[in-house]
């Protein structure tokens, strides 16, 4: 990882905000999907699958860029436990951004359902069909989605804390940059 500058790169900021929109959309689509049995269900499933694969690809790209470009240092006066919480929350974000789509893909594979994306691209099954595995993965996907939603709320609260209370450069580093 290279030394971090005073701000995230333009590519890092763009990936952050595009993924933020995708992840929020995915969380709300997921909630709508499991709450409906109406005619919109199949459309929501189709969007959910395609968006999940897009998030997986973007997350892998974002991780590669992060490993190459680094990240700006947190404010020197931030307490060590808060710095640790920031590090762990970002690690959790990457694990969830990569893990959730893979669990969804595995869940659909275990159910014997094809993963057909927008444009007709069909992904191969990554697990053999298994009712037990499907049920286990469905539960994991559901509960991790709830944890992901909670993490997003904590992340937004932390961003607002930096913007409105601490008034430091942290929020600016991910919006307009400080370069």
TrEMBL record:
One Pfam family here: Ni_hydr_CYTB
InterPro entries in the cross-refs: Cyt_b561_bac/Ni-Hgenase (IPR011577), Cytochrome_b561_oxidase (IPR052168), Di-haem_cyt_TM (IPR016174)
Keywords: Cell membrane, Electron transport, Heme, Iron, Membrane, Metal-binding, Transmembrane, Transmembrane helix, Transport
Annotated compartments: Cell membrane
Cofactors demanded by this protein: heme b
Entry keyword annotation includes Heme: yes
TM annotation in the entry: 14-34, 41-64, 84-103, 142-165
Membrane topology: Multi-pass membrane protein
Family, per entry: Belongs to the cytochrome b561 family.
UniProt-recorded name of the protein: Cytochrome b
Organism expressing this protein natively: Labrys neptuniae
Phylogenetic classification of the source organism: Bacteria, Pseudomonadati, Pseudomonadota, Alphaproteobacteria, Hyphomicrobiales
């Amino acid at each position: 990882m290279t030394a971090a500058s005073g701000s995230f790169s333009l590519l890092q900021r763009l990936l952050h905000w595009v993924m933020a929109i995708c992840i929020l959309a995915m969380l709300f689509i997921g909630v709508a999907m499991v709450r409906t049995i109406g005619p919109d269900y199949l459309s929501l499933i189709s969007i959910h699958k395609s968006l999940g694969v897009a998030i997986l690809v973007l997350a892998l790209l974002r991780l590669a860029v992060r490993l190459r470009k680094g990240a700006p240092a947190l404010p020197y006066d931030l307490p060590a436990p808060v710095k640790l919480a920031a590090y762990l929350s970002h690690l959790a974000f990457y694990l969830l951004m990569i893990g959730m789509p893979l669990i969804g893909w595995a869940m659909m594979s275990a159910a014997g359902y094809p993963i057909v994306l927008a444009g007709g691209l069909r992904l191969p099954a990554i697990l053999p069909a298994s009712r037990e595995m499907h049920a286990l993965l469905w539960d994991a996907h559901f509960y991790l989605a709830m944890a992901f939603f909670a993490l997003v709320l904590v992340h937004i609260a932390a961003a607002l804390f930096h913007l409105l209370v601490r008034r430091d450069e942290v929020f600016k580093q991910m919006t307009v940059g400080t370069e």
